[in-house]
Predict the 3D structure of the following.
Amino acid sequence: MDHTTDISREAKVCITRNVKGSWKEMLSDAGVRVVCPDDDGGDRAWSRQEFLTCIQGCHGVGCMLSERWDAEAFDAAGEQLRVVANYAVGYNNIDLEEARSRGVWVTNTPDVLTDATADVAWALLMAAARCTGSAERSLRAGEFHGWEPNGFLGVDLVGRTLGIIGAGRIGTATARRARGWDMQVVYAHHRSKPEFEQATGGRRVDLDSLLAESDFISLHVPLTPETRHMIGAREFGLMKPTAVLVNTARGPVVDEAALVEALRSGQIFAAGLDVYEDEPRMADGLVGLENAVLLPHIGSATEHTRAVMGELMATNILAALRGQEPPNKIS
Ligand code: NAP
Ligand code: GLV
Ligand code: GLV
């Protein structure tokens, strides 16, 4: 497909949710015809069929991480499609081979959500370490009868070891925050990362050593065939009984049924999760566990971050429609 001509003045772009930020003005000012499902002011997720219908005939689509781009979706969009701009940094919902074979650019929203997501990793780490979920549930249930010497005993943070799996942008930002607690940082990565070591003082170890040494383990790898079920029954067996596992990456990186078992049996102390294997479903038994802190995939959810993500998505779409390589091109 010829990608060099500027088609922005006649292009049709669909943004699948009414996200924050000035993306609509950015696209309209450039002459792009914008279709948004929520033009009536509402905001809801589309059914698969609505998604497939609305992307038809579009030159660009700004989409959500919950929308799957497989051969069926690329077929439904049509061969005029130039760019799929994911409103997320993770892009495991998009079949890159399909995109490449059709000459469609795929983009994401890196960097702008790094700090927001690292903050949620720490919110989960601290909440899981200090039992704040179960303590709050107890209070709200009317069970707070005064200070208790033995209730909701957690684990300490200062001076302990934080293990980072996936030393990329969010892994680095999460590790940097550990300085405030004088923690040691270890990391597992498929190559050495001098920039991570410089920013965090972290030491590279193999995955099994990280699992055995760490008091807190935080996952920051993308979901790929190699990282699927990277943490399962064998890995829980290597962790300390006082370990806290935090997952803000992608649910399938953890074998969720094995996690339920590890939490239930006390093989690890607690877990803090923002992501699940088959969202919005959760493994049987997970919601009933007091030592699991569970958030509904809110890693990047701040007003500011979500607005900047929307604008970055529009920047990527506009570049592609003008025949220029988008700044956040994945493929
Ligand atoms: P990133 O900068 O690309 O970091 C991911 C790192 O993981 C990269 O450095 C990559 O190394 C490394 N990696 C890949 N495969 C690995 C493996 N098998 N073992 C060890 N390391 C491996 O991405 P990011 O911006 O930090 O985002 C990370 C992930 O967080 C995203 O992919 C997304 O799934 C998730 N996320 C979730 C939320 C949320 O709302 N909960 C928000 C944002 C992001 P190389 O670069 O050397 O390949
Ligand atoms: C959120 O999960 C993202 O990948 O941006
Ligand atoms: C607790 O409130 C304390 O004073 O130790």
About this structure: The longest strand covers residues 161-165. The domain at 12-112+303-321 is CATH 3.40.50.720 (Rossmann fold). Residues 303-321 form the longest helix (19 residues). The chain has a mean pLDDT of 96.
